[in-house]
Amino acid sequence: MREDSINFLRCPNCKGQFGLNINKQTGDEIMQGILKCQACGECFDIKDGHANLIFPRDLDKSTLSIENFYDQRPLYDYRPTAFRFGIWSIAFQGTSDRIKWANRLAIHEGASVLEIGVGNGGNLPFIADVIGEKGLIHGLDISSVCIKIARERMMHRNTPTELVHGNATYLPYKDDAFDAILCVGGINDFSDKKRALQEINRVAKAGAKIVIEDEGLAPDREKTLLGKYILMCMKVFENKPPVMDLPEAVEDLKIDWIYQRTFWVMEYRKRA
Ligand SMILES: C[S@@+](CC[C@H](N)C(=O)[O-])C[C@H]1O[C@@H](n2cnc3c(N)ncnc32)[C@H](O)[C@@H]1O
Ligand SMILES: [Zn+2]
What we know:
four-stranded antiparallel beta sheet, binds zinc ion, 2 domains, alpha/beta, 26% helix, globular, seven-stranded mixed beta sheet, single chain, binds S-adenosylmethionine, Rossmann fold
């Protein structure tokens, strides 16, 4: 963990500021330590170079099972794995897809960007290419195994990057922190989408671009043979873009359908 990340990180319980206790440091990186909330007194460990800001401490059953799933499959996006998942091979995240996410965020040099459900960090180098060394990346994931890989991926990049083990429904960041927020392939698994979307708006700056994507068939696709087959085999494709769960303070909402209209992309801005 970088010492200056304390300026952005907040207690996921009460949003209070942290005090930092460093136990082991390697160069600029804090490898072990404790973050203590100065408001509610909750303590969170820093281990293996990243903070564990998971909240609530006892995760609900479905979030726990997602954590286990990705802890065991942190390389979910490697081609052979994707092919084993069948339909997900359509949505294989190649370089061109990852560049598109960076483009959709409409970011510029020096921007601060958060990826929620950052996984093993496949999108981060492309975001770093745009925002450069004056930019700032934060990433959060429920899987600590994914976070370790993402951290290694970004270790030798010049863009300051902070990756934390955390829960999308209790974001450990200050209000109005980020110029852009990305969430690719995670939200269908969030146990409380409405809360997660409120949290996203809280940590976004006014006017920030927010891009969210996940599985879900376009209405016309549902009626086709392929659509009916997909729905019969995989319940996850019943999901729809969670427009009804969005907070009021959003504008410029747009829904796109991608990967043969089997995934949706929801883009909007936090109202300025
Ligand atoms: C399909 S992967 C995509 C990862 C990454 N965005 C990418 O494009 O490669 C979805 C990720 O969302 C994470 N995730 C699911 N539920 C989460 C939650 N409640 N909080 C944080 N991350 C979560 C998973 O651990 C997983 O790494
Ligand atoms: Zn607190």
